[in-house]
Write a structure and sequence with these properties.
hydrolase activity, 8-stranded mixed β-sheet, alpha/beta, Rossmann fold, 10 helices, 8 strands
């Protein structure tokens, strides 16, 4: 199928003519790492210190590695942001999340805690989500030590990171956990039922498409049925959740589940900002030179800034 992709994004497609297959997870991880090496790094304008730590994991589970980005020139207490990388629940790491985390620390003056959660299929649900919850608890408990205002802690991520963030917000609400002031749900992966119009239609879109989504949920769930924390689209009650920013891409199978979730949040009384970017595809934001990509990045940063103000 032919898609009306923004002309500035088209040169990127030559780098992945057949998309990024998910049949072989190890190969997918290597392929994404290779693609990432071709992307420019983010150089902060202000000093940002970076430190890796091992923090207590969920009960009976290994420690969780986090990477803490501290904007040393920003006065404490600063806002905090727990950043959760994407990758279909099965790929991705702290290095993938580094550019966004560094930029948030640099431009917003927030302390960012990036989470190296356990990946599927080796560690299916709820391993990854519980690791993210452990990181949120640690961030809140160590707020004073980290120079964070405990009343201004946000969470967020892109793709599977957006889905994990939505699940984390639900988990924190239902467990009476740390207060979350804001959630960033970027092109979020939310619904294992795979029955929205965009998910049904987009079987060959760049980078992410229905076949990949099917495998992603298969790996993440490990053959078990999804609950609302694994697939937040299944949640019946969305009241009492933190304000959200949701963005979606036109030619992305995840498009409609993001829009539907944003509307349901609104209907539940949650403040929401929703933006659909025409001509884009899942992961097109990696093409940093395109004007629409610049708008996406600037809007995301502005949403985090306002959400944590």
């Amino acid at each position: 199928m032919t898609y009306a992709i923004d002309p500035e994004l088209l040169p990127w497609l030559a780098m992945m003519p057949d998309g990024v297959g998910f049949e072989d997870v190890q190969a997918s991880r290597a392929r994404m790492a290779s693609m990432r090496e071709q992307m420019p790094t983010y150089e902060p304008a202000n000093p940002v210190t970076v430190e890796e730590k091992l923090i207590p994991g969920p009960a009976g589970a290994p420690e969780v590695r986090v990477r803490v980005y501290t904007p040393t020139s920003a006065p404490a207490p600063r806002p905090g942001f727990v950043s959760i990388h994407g990758g279909g629940f099965a790929i991705g790491d702290l290095d993938q999340d580094a550019p966004i985390s560094t930029e948030i620390a640099d431009k917003i003056g927030a302390v960012v805690v990036s989470v190296d959660y356990r990946l599927a299929p080796e560690n299916p649900y709820p391993a990854g989500l519980e690791d993210c919850y452990a990181a949120l608890e640690w961030t809140a408990a160590k707020a004073s030590e980290l120079g964070i205002d405990p009343e201004r802690i946000g969470i967020g991520g892109m793709s599977a990171g957006g889905g994990l963030s939505a699940g984390l917000a639900l988990l924190a609400r239902d467990r009476g956990g740390p207060a979350v002031k804001f959630q960033l749900l970027g092109i979020p992966e939310l619904d294992d039922r795979l029955d929205t119009p965009s998910m049904t239609k987009f079987v060959d879109t760049p980078l992410w498409h229905r076949p990949n989504a099917i495998l992603s949920w298969k790996y993440y769930l490990g053959g078990k049925p999804a609950d609302q924390y694994a697939a937040p689209a299944r949640a019946e009650d969305l009241s009492g959740l933190p304000p959200a920013y949701v963005n979606v891409c036109e030619f992305d199978p995840l498009r409609d589940e993001g829009i539907i979730y944003a509307l349901r949040l609104l209907q539940a009384g949650v403040p929401v900002e929703l933006h659909h970017f025409p001509g884009t595809f899942h992961g097109s934001e990696m093409v940093r030179a395109a004007e629409i990509t610049k708008r996406m990045a600037a809007e995301r940063l502005d949403a985090i800034r306002r959400g944590l103000s």
